[in-house]
Amino acid sequence: MNAHPLDKYLVTKRLPHIWCPGCGIGVALAAILRAIDRRIHEGALKPENLVMVTGIGCTARAAIYVSFDSAHTIHGRAIPFASGAKLANPKLEVIVLGGDGDIAGIGGNHLLHAARRNMDLTVFMITNMVYAMTGGQVAPTTPTGMYTTTTPKGNPETPVNVIKLVAYQGANYVARASTTHPALIERYTYRALGMEGFRFIEIISPCPEIFGRHIGFRDPVELYEEIKKKSKYKPKPSLEESDLDWERGWVLGEFIERNEPGYLKRIGRV
Amino acid sequence: MGRCEYIPANIAIAEGAMAAGLNFFAGYPITPASDLFEYLAEKLPGRGGVVVQFEDEIGSINAVVGAAWAGAKAMTATSGPGFSLMVEGLGLAIMTETPLVLVDVMRAGPSTGVPTKTTQSDVYQVRFAAHGEYSIPVLVPWSAQEAFDLAVKAFNIAEALRTPVILLTDAALAHTWERVEIKDHGEINIVERRPPCNPPEKFKLYEPCENLVPRMAYFGEGYGILVESLAHDEEGYYSPNTEAYERLVRRLVAKIERNSHLIVDNEEYLTRGAEYVIYAYGSTARSAYAVVKELRREGLRVGLFRPKALWPFDAKSLKKATESARKVFVVENNLGKMVREVERVLKNKEVIPVNVIDLEVPPPDKISEEIRRWL
């Protein structure tokens, strides 16, 4: 029984998924799958060539639910694993999904070097500003001053601006979306899948259970509304507008769009 | 046609790997393994392969695992400190049953230690450093020629048993130049991973065949595989229950131990009827061999047992080779590692550790001086 048009991309017998009610990851995955579906329908992408690589964390569990080839690897290492797969078989369309801790924390070094190489991958980073699976510890994206279980007096650190980090390394495509604006996720994914080189899409996503509840949001809808209010779409924003600021909000949009040769082209593998 | 060349063991390994079908290498520079990497960077792309320097050893090993799942015969090479960083990725390869070859060229540790010199102090690191239950083949050549031959064998074991394989050498052997017969791809026996025999809807990525090894599909073949680092059942589903976990880890160990005939090999020299047997491996075995010849000239019945694989531990062959021995000497360039395995297996024999630390290679006279005290 195909209850939903995207069911063909999911192993439905593995459902229900582990994500909490109100979590944005499922919204993000659905939007990504819709973009993949469009590319497949156009004939631009063969489903058997699609590979999803993830590390560890709530987001990383997505690899378990998709019906195409996937790998649920180890914390922080999805990008090098994905790079190896793409280099070994350039025909593959390799996408990486990860949380902010997975991609920008423990995997931060791999992220910046993959961006610098313009490695032919699309990387999605779900930013929920907290280590959720492990119970609410501080993340590299946690706003300054915010309570987490490992910063009980407030986070003393400055959150990383991953948009700038990746853009300055020379990635071909850098965009930010939010699960409060799923149409943007779909649009950016669709565009990214038609490009070469390193493509990076940050997706702001509410974590009502572990992030929202800890900072006083009693209700998932409240947190959702707050994130929606803070997310402002802007056509062609500049990198100077890319800061992730809990007080002033953040800009959604396509920050970088280049057409530089990807890594495979640079080493003559295409 | 093959050819003969005068090359060091590091280069012999690179040649052996290419003869076995290597087409992906990812690495990070480290003494004394870098020249193996550099040689492949020169040679492999011309043969259609990929060589990439990653940002660290963590990236390198994970790229190798990813490449193997895209169908490549993949390898990396490192030394103690780099191996430490690779341990996490090695565990991933063990859990996901990924065929790959990890070359470890031992130097002197702990920590940065002596990068340019040799010891045999990392034989436990390569076998036991990853967490959890597993067994892993560790091959240990003693010459440049054997480095070539065991590089080929390492790939064959990796493919046959869907497992990472350690090829363990050391700084001295790595740069020991010798005449090596380099055989061509067509001249050697090559083993390939077994492809699925079921259509995708029936195929299970972790369902073992009769030899306990599952068949392997890889990315891009339409099987919709899930490479899973969590403990999983035969389909790859996370299974946090005792029954599935125990079934998995017992098989991960048993598939290596029960197929040990594909891995273990030993060279025995004058062990028949020997009163004393020396157990030695790798570069140290070269000196031990000289000691055996020296003591034989003096009329002492001494023999040499030299394993070409440290693990799985070939207890049966060792017991047989030491049947007549009164004393067994375990000569190592460390403070005593394999001696514990030998003691465990030869419970009723006198097993004597001969621990000669030497940053070059333990010279024969240092070894014989130690042994003579017990004769």
Structure in words:
The complex is a heterodimer of chains A (270) and B (375). Chain A has 270 residues and is α/β, with parallel strands linked by helices. Chain A is built from 10 helices and 8 strands. In chain A, strand 5, helix 7 and strand 6 form a beta-alpha-beta unit. In chain A, helix 1 packs across helix 7, helix 4 packs across helix 5 and helix 5 packs parallel to helix 6. The longest helix of chain A is centred in the first third of the chain and has 18 residues. The model of chain A has no long low-confidence stretch (mean pLDDT 97). Chain B is of the alpha/beta class and 375 residues long. Chain B folds into 2 domains: 185 residues, Thiamin diphosphate (ThDP)-binding fold, Pyr/PP domains (Rossmann fold, 3-Layer(aba) Sandwich), CATH 3.40.50.970; 107 residues, 3-Layer(aba) Sandwich (Rossmann fold). Chain B is 36% helix and 19% strand. In chain B, the strands form 3 sheets. In chain B, strands 3-2-4-5-7-6-13 form a 7-stranded mixed β-sheet, sandwiched between helices. In chain B, helix 6 links the parallel strand 6 and strand 7. Chain B is globular, with a radius of gyration of 21 Å. Chains A and B meet through strand 2, helix 3 and helix 5 of A and helix 3, helix 4 and strand 9 of B. Strand 2 of chain A pairs parallel with strand 9 of chain B, so a sheet runs across the interface.
